[in-house]
Structures are given as structure tokens and as C-alpha cells.
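Readers of this paper often ask what the protein records in our data store actually look like. The remainder of this section carries one protein's record, kept here as part of the documentation.

:::
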Amino acid sequence: GKNCIVNTRFVPAGDFALLARAYKTPVAQKQEKIYTALKLGNAWKLRNCTENLLTMDHCRCEVEGKELFAKEYVLTINDALLAIEKENLPVALEFTFQADANFDASKPLTLLVERPERMKISVNGTAVSNKPNGFFADPAFERIDITGTVRQGKNTIRLETNYHQFQQTFDCLRAAKIFESERNKLSLDSEIEAIYLAGDFGVKTPGEFTQLSDDSSRYSGEFILTSRPAEVAGDHLEESGLPFFAGEATIAQTLTLTKEEAASPKELRIDMFYGNVLICKINGTEIGTLTRPDYCLQIPEGLLKAGDNDLELTIVTSLRNMLGPHHLEEGDSHAVSPTSFYKTPNGPFTSHGAFPWNDGYCFVRHGIR
């Protein structure tokens, strides 16, 4: 006949290609193999990872030498400074964090901050250079070296700057209350933003994680710098010392097989992957990269051996847990706008109201299950 019927199953975000020829081609005899899945545990060694991160989005604020906020969310502070309507405001911000006895202060540590050249920066009272040395992920997040300034216990990062806006900015904000489209012309010369620490450390989370969905949770409690974890839970990296992590984390475990098990057809089968890209290696040989369901790779014949075998997975994540939004009451949102990051209503970017807020931190899940 002229019709061809093909039965197939589309996985989420999957595709399927058919190739038609006008002539017959020889087809190799198909030999069916029955593959069995490797049995994986949930305890993994953290073999390597890019820099870990600590996001700090609350701080103390002084304006003209007087305390405006004892502790407040950075974008709420920014809205309050705009409301003062002064072209130049001397502002000081103090971000605090904790470090325990296991944190190694001798290892390289960088502060990620936007436009550091406009700031006077000190850590625990020690002045540091505001000259950046490269950036993290985006040129906006400039690196300031603060190695050796962090101590056990409470630490304070102080940023002093001139909060400057042009008069047309205030004119635009007032006009936007009458004609909403005026807001499209808004441009801020100074902004109060979150800052970040980047380095070889772990982030201890002694508080409580509450599961919001299969792929997100909310943490309530403090964050403490500590040593980088040696072991992690494979299904929850964000709960294993890497809550704000954004980069590549390589986890590994040893699989012990008998001679018969090593000789039989095997596949690496993962029920669910929480991340962007998963690079898989067995005994040092890369067997494939996974980005979408089905999360399954057939292991080449002869790669497994009797005895101990090394399985290594590199999980590549997005910047979501670094940047947020962290504080939406709904948890992880699949539709994000500037309003998603604001706490208070009736601000420059929340003229129609703010979304319900939660002081806890919402993280998306990273790992495998």
C-alpha cells in the first residue's frame, strides 16, 4: 500500500524522526538483548564541583549616618530610597553571615557584587580593594577578593556608596502613577541588590526543609559557612550543603559486580533527573549525556568488570537557586517577572500589587532519583 503506520511513544519534550527512501535497503537482523538496570544507592561522594555560593538578600541599612532598617530585604530598601527622592544619598549596607570552625578561611573566597567601583568595601572592619578581578556567570556579578577576612562566628560585610538617581527618574516614577506606560522609560542609576559569596565551602542548613512539590522545597533557618561536604544525598544536593549552588557538581559511587553481573547487558536507568544536563561516566569512560526523559543509557559491552566499578555523574544546574525568586509563597513559579522578586506592593515594579511573600527560601531540587 501507499500508507505507512508507525506506533511510537513521545516522551515529554521529545521528538521522533522518520527517514523514507524510494528503494529497499538491507536491514541487519535485530538481536534482542535484555538489559538490567544498575542498582544505585542514594549516598554519593562529592568528587568535585565548581564554586559553591551563598546568597545574601537581607541587610541593615543606614542613610546619612542614621539607621533606616535594622534588617530588611534588599529590594524593599531600594524602593524606600527611591521614595526619599534625593539625587544623592550616602548609604551604608551591612550584610551578616555565620562561619563555623570547619570553614577554611585560607581558601580563595570572592564577594560577588554589582558595580563595586562605586563602593567602599570592608569585611569585619578590614578594608578590601573594590577593584574587580573577573566575574561569575555574568559580567554584572563582579568578583572582589576577600580571602582571609572571614572568621569563625558572625561576619559583617559593609558596603558604603552614594545612592544616586537623576531627577528624570523621580519625574518618571511620579508620571507612572498617572500613565502606566511612563514606567517603560524608567532607568535607575543606582540599585540595592543581593550580594553573594563564592568559593570552596559548604553551606550548613540547621533549620527545616519543607517539601512543596516533587521538585521544590522551602527552607526556614540560618545559613552557616562550613567545609565543603565530602558526601551528599544524590536526590537532594540542595539539602546537602549546596542550597544556592549554580554550576557543575560531580558525584560518584562504587558499584561492586560479580563476573556474571559484569558480563550481562546493563543500562544506567534513572527514574528522574533534577537539573539541566547530566554527564555520565563509568570507569572513566563517558557513556552519554542526558537532558530529558527517558533517562536511560545502555552501557557498552566490556566496560563493566568484575569487582569495583566507578560510576561518576556530573550534574549541571541553572542559576535558579542562586538568583531566585526565593520568597514567593507559592514556592517555585513557572512564570517569573520583575514582580516575582518584590516584597512590598505599590512600588515602582508592583503597581498592581505584590505576590504573597514568605521569608523562607524556596529552592528547586537538584540531583537524581
Observations:
- The first strand starts at residue 36 and ends at 37.
- Residues 74-84 form the longest helix (11 residues).
- The mean pLDDT is 93.
